[in-house]
Design a protein that fits this description.
Length: 550
C-alpha cells in the first residue's frame, strides 16, 4: 500500500526542503496549538512511512478532541490499504465534522470507489465537485464511479471537463479512452489513446488499452513502437510490465506464439509474488469444514426468499462476462457487473483466516434476524442497479468462495458456474492484467495450484447443493450457442427470448477485460489455445495434474 497522502491532498501540501509540512489552505489549522504540533508531526511521520507513530499521535489528538476533523482525516489516509472499511469510517467522520471541505468529501468518495461501493462514492464525489469545481481528481473520481455504476454516458462529460482544466492529466485522458472502450466506441478510444501516447501520458497503460481494443491480423506500427519503448535504458519495472503485456497481446493475435510468451513471462517476472499458497489451502479447508451439509440444513429458513439475485461465478477469464452478456440480453434480466458487496458482507462476518481467531464464528452464531438484515442489505444494494428486473446478475468471479454463505442468505438465488478448459483458463489469466487479489496469476506453477484449490472447493459446493449450481462450460457455449443459452435462461426460470442470441448488439457498457470480445459474435479461436504454447508451459501443466485435459 502507498503510505503517501491521497493525490488531491498531497498536491496542496507545500513540502519544504526541511521536515516542516504546511497543511493546505483549504483545511483550517487546528485551534489548539498543541494539536497543531502533533498533527504536523503525524504528517511528517506518515511521509517517512512511520505509520504506527503517526497513528498514535492522531489518537492523542482525538483523546482531547474526539471529533477533530484533520486527525480523523489523517487516520483515514493511514488506514487505506490496511483496513479500507475503517478508513471510510474515519473519512466519513471527518466529512461530517466539516461537510464543506472538498478534500474530505473527495477522499471519502475515493475510498468508497476503491471498495466498489459506487452510490456513496457518487454522492461524495459530486459534493466535492460542487465545493471545488476545478478539482480534477474529483471530476475523474466521479467519472470512474459513474462508469462502474453502469452510467458511462455520464462519465464522458466529466472526463472531458477535467481535460479542459488540465490537458495533460493522465488519469482523465486514459479514463476517457477506457470509457469509450466500455461503450464500444473503439475509434474514438484509439484517437484518445494515441494522443495520450503522443503527450507521453501513462504510455504503457495507453498502449495496453489500445492493443486490447481490437484484434490484429497484420502487424500494426504500434508493435515496433512498443518494442522501441522496451529498449530504452531508463525504463522502470512498472513500465516494462505494461509494455511486455501489450507486446504479448499483439504477437499472440499475429500467431507469433513463442515471441508472445517470452513477453508474457518477462512481464510476470516483474510482479511481486505475495500469494501464500499454504494459507490459501487452509482457507479452502476452513470453508469446506464450516459450510457442510448439516450446517446448511441447520440454517434452513434463514435469509431472504427473493429470486432476484443471480450469481455468475468461476475463475476469472472463464466466460463469466460472456455469460452475463447473454443472460442480461433477456428483457427480464439486468447485469450489474462485478459487485464487491457480497465480499464485504463476508469480510464483516470474519470469513478470513486470522491468527488467534476461530474461522467463521460469526457465521456459526448468526441469528435468523441477522441473516434477514444482511440479506436485505444486499438486496437493497442490488436494487440500486435495477428497481424492477426480476433477475439481477452479480458477476464477481471469486464469489465462488462464498457460495455457502450466499446459499444461507438467499435460499432461492441462482448460481451459474462458468467453467473452461483448465489450461486455457489459466493461460488467459496469465496473459491478462489481473490486479489486486489475483497475485496467484503471476507465476505458472502457482496459478495451476490455485486452480486446483478452486476446483476442490467447487466440487464441495456441487456436493452439498445438488441441483442448485448450473455448470456452464465455455466450450459447450461455443459449440452450441443456442442450446446452451436456452439452458441458461431456463435455469433462471424465465421463458426464452431470441435477443439472447444477439448479445453482441446489447446496448450499454462492458466493464471487464473481455469488453472487446463480448461485442463480437461467438468465435472458437480461444478453445484449446494453450496448444500454441505447450512447449513453454510445463510448470502450469504439471501443477494442474489430472485437471489438465490433454
Amino acid at each position: 500500500m502507498s503510505t503517501r497522502l491521497p493525490p488531491a491532498w498531497s498536491k496542496h501540501l507545500k513540502v519544504q526542503s526541511g521536515p516542516k509540512i504546511t497543511p493546505p489552505k483549504a483545511m483550517p489549522l487546528p485551534r489548539a496549538q498543541a494539536d497543531d504540533v502533533l498533527l504536523r508531526q503525524a504528517l511528517e511521520l506518515q511521509k517517512a512511512e512511520r505509520l504506527p507513530e503517526a497513528e498514535e499521535l492522531c489518537h492523542r489528538v482525538l483523546a482531547r478532541s474526539p471529533n477533530h476533523a484533520l486527525a480523523l482525516y489523517i487516520l483515514g489516509t493511514l488506514g487505506l490499504g490496511f483496513d479500507d472499511e475503517l478508513a471510510i469510517n474515519y473519512f466519513a467522520r471527518a466529512a461530517a465534522r466539516e461537510p464543506n471541505n472538498p478534500f474530505y468529501q473527495l477522499s471519502l468518495g475515493e475510498a468508497c470507489l476503491k471498495v466498489g461501493d459506487y452510490p456513496p462514492a457518487i454522492k461524495h464525489l459530486q459534493r466535492a465537485c460542487e465545493l471545488k469545481p476545478d478539482l480534477v481528481e474529483a471530476l475523474c473520481g466521479l467519472a470512474q464511479a459513474y462508469a462502474k455504476f453502469d452510467k458511462a454516458d455520464m462519465a464522458l462529460p466529466l472526463f472531458e471537463r477535467a481535460l479542459e482544466i488540465n490537458r495533460d492529466h493522465s488519469q482523465a485522458r486514459i479514463g476517457l479512452a477506457d470509457t469509450f472502450i466500455n461503450l464500444g466506441r473503439m475509434d474514438e478510444a484509439a484517437i484518445c489513446l494515441k494522443e495520450a501516447i503522443a503527450r507521453r501520458m501513462n504510455v504503457p497503460g495507453a498502449y495496453h488499452s489500445l492493443v486490447n481494443s481490437r484484434k490484429f491480423s497484420t502487424e500494426p506500427p504500434e508493435l515496433k513502437s512498443i518494442l522501441d519503448e522496451l529498449g530504452k535504458p531508463a525504463i522502470s519495472a512498472d513500465e516494462s510490465y505494461g509494455f511486455h503485456l501489450a507486446a504479448g497481446k499483439v504477437l499472440n493475435d499475429l500467431g507469433r506464439y513463442d515471441e508472445a510468451m517470452d513477453h508474457f513471462l518477462k512481464a510476470k517476472t516483474l510482479k511481486a509474488r505475495d500469494f501464500d499458497m499454504d494459507s490459501h489451502r487452509k482457507r479452502v479447508d476452513s470453508l469446506i469444514r464450516l459450510f457442510d451439509a448439516d450446517f446448511l440444513a441447520a440454517k434452513a429458513g434463514y435469509g431472504n426468499p427473493s429470486e432476484a439475485p443471480v450469481f455468475v461465478l468461476g475463475m476469472p477469464r472463464s466466460g463469466t462476462t460472456l455469460t452475463e452478456q447473454i443472460c442480461s440480453s433477456h428483457p427480464d434480466v439486468h447485469g450489474a457487473g462485478e459487485l464487491t458487496k457480497m465480499g464485504r458482507i463476508a469480510a464483516s462476518l470474519g470469513l478470513k483466516l486470522k491468527p488467534g481467531q476461530s474461522f467463521g464464528e460469526s457465521v456459526r452464531s448468526m441469528t435468523i434476524q441477522k441473516s434477514h438484515a444482511l440479506a436485505e442489505d444486499y438486496l437493497s444494494y442490488l436494487r440500486l442497479y435495477s428497481a424492477t428486473a426480476p433477475r439481477i446478475i452479480d458477476k464477481m468471479p471469486h464469489n465462488f468462495e462464498l457460495i455457502g454463505l450466499i446459499a444461507i442468505l438467499f435460499p432461492n438465488a441462482r448460481f451459474i458456474h462458468c467453467r473452461r478448459d483448465a489450461i486455457d483458463n489459466c493461460l488467459s489469466c496469465f496473459f491478462s492484467n489481473l490486479q489486486e487479489g489475483h497475485s496467484y496469476s503471476y507465476d505458472l506453477r502457482t496459478l495451476g495450484l490455485a486452480y486446483r484449490e478452486y476446483d476442490r472447493l467447487m466440487r464441495h459446493w456441487q456436493t452439498i447443493l445438488p441441483g442448485r449450481i448450473f455448470e456452464n462450460r465455455y466450450e459447450d457455449l461455443i459449440s452450441d450457442q443456442e442450446g446452451q443459452s436456452r439452458r441458461l435462461i431456463d435455469h433462471l426460470g424465465l421463458t426464452w427470448d431470441d435477443a439472447c442470441l444477439r448479445f453482441f448488439n446489447k446496448a450499454g457498457s462492458v466493464r471487464t477485460i473481455s469488453r472487446w470480445q463480448v461485442r463480437q459474435p461467438i468465435y472458437k479461436s480461444s478453445v484449446k489455445r494453450w496448444k500454441n504454447y505447450e512447449s513453454k508451459i510445463p510448470p502450469l501443466i504439471e501443477a494442474l495434474g489430472d485437471l489438465a485435459e490433454r
